């Protein structure tokens, strides 16, 4: 990848945070396998990637590889977890810095797209894999959407005074996810599609979450009878 240093920085940052939480030390060998595997998965896809391809890219021995990973899917799952954890970190930061609901919408939307673009084509592969209920990536996708939806709902409700249904925010996140796949349609990044998606997403967010009273009434949490 052209921005290998940026990928390395993200991976190392997340692994160091995990090591601190678990009271251990970050393995540089494990980090290098993850970093270089992103490029392999992006170029070859999951089906045509073998463990040997990952070994060659990271320049590590088979013994070292199996010290940290069970198979290639274990590597992809680890990459996806790093992506999820870092994405949630960015969401936290933007929500803390935003002073209005409109700022939250605009800033988190921009962060979401910018981060997906920075990860490159491998993000499309991971997102498509994570949407399969049988995939090892699926639980991480569900967890991330639940956390993001709950926090965004809480912050926007706090700033607007509306008790929004969390399902509304989950719906917004599903749209964001589809737009991210559209940006890399046919395996190629499109700056034009990115601009279109950012503009459309902000418009949808603001119309739905900050619209008039009639719209708001449809979105607010309904008391169970």
TrEMBL record:
Pfam families: TetR_N. Residues 50-69 bind DNA. Residues 27-87 form the HTH tetR-type domain. InterPro entries: DNA-bd_HTH_TetR-type_CS (IPR023772), Homeodomain-like_sf (IPR009057), HTH-type_Tx_Regulator (IPR050624), HTH_TetR (IPR001647). Keywords: DNA-binding. Signal peptide: none annotated. This is TetR family transcriptional regulator. It comes from the Bacteria.
């Amino acid at each position: 990848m052209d921005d290998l240093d940026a990928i390395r920085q993200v991976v190392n940052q997340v692994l160091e945070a995990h090591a601190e939480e678990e009271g251990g030390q970050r393995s540089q060998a494990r980090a290098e396998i993850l970093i270089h595997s992103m490029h392999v998965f992006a170029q070859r896809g999951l089906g045509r990637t073998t463990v040997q391809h990952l070994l060659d890219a990271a320049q590590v021995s088979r013994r070292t590889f199996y010290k940290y990973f069970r198979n290639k899917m274990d590597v992809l799952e680890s990459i996806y977890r790093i992506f999820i954890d870092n994405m949630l970190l960015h969401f936290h930061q933007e929500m803390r810095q935003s002073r209005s609901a409109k700022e939250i919408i605009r800033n988190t939307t921009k962060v979401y797209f910018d981060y997906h673009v920075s990860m490159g084509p491998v993000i499309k592969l991971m997102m498509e894999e994570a949407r399969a209920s049988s995939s090892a990536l699926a639980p991480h996708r569900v967890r991330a959407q639940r956390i993001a939806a709950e926090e965004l709902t809480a912050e926007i409700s706090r700033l607007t005074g509306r008790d929004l249904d969390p399902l509304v925010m989950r719906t917004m996140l599903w749209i964001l996810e589809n737009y991210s796949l559209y940006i890399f349609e046919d395996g190629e990044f499109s700056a034009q599609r990115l601009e279109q998606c950012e503009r459309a997403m902000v418009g949808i967010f603001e119309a739905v979450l900050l619209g008039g009273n009639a719209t708001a009434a449809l979105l607010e949490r309904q008391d169970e009878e």
